[in-house]
Amino acid sequence: MARKVIQKSFGGPEVLEVVEVPQPETQDLGAGEVLVRVAFAGLNAVDWKTRAGGGAAPALGELPFTVGWDFSGTIEAIAEDVGEFVPGDRVFACQNFLHRPRPMPTTWSPPRANLSRRQPR
Asked: Which residue of 27, 41, 86, 113 has the smallest Cβ count within 10 Å?
């Protein structure tokens, strides 16, 4: 199981809840997707406004949902049509703002178009 943060109502930080969800599997990857083990997920001003019912909330549909579009982690698996990344690549992303936010799961399969490879130090 993976963990993610959801909210079932609008409000302050107290509406955020950590839940367990099924972990994505390699065979579940769609075209253009990669499986990322999320190491860090970030929240910014749009996220707390959305959590409170403003920001992007009107465009996201009904609750529950997960706030947060920004994350970094390590690719664990790739779909067959993904050639620019390989397992082990360290990546970061800011998801498409108008899509439902969801990078908080500890393992996630975003579209590869939203990823950038992290540069070595």
From this structure: 27
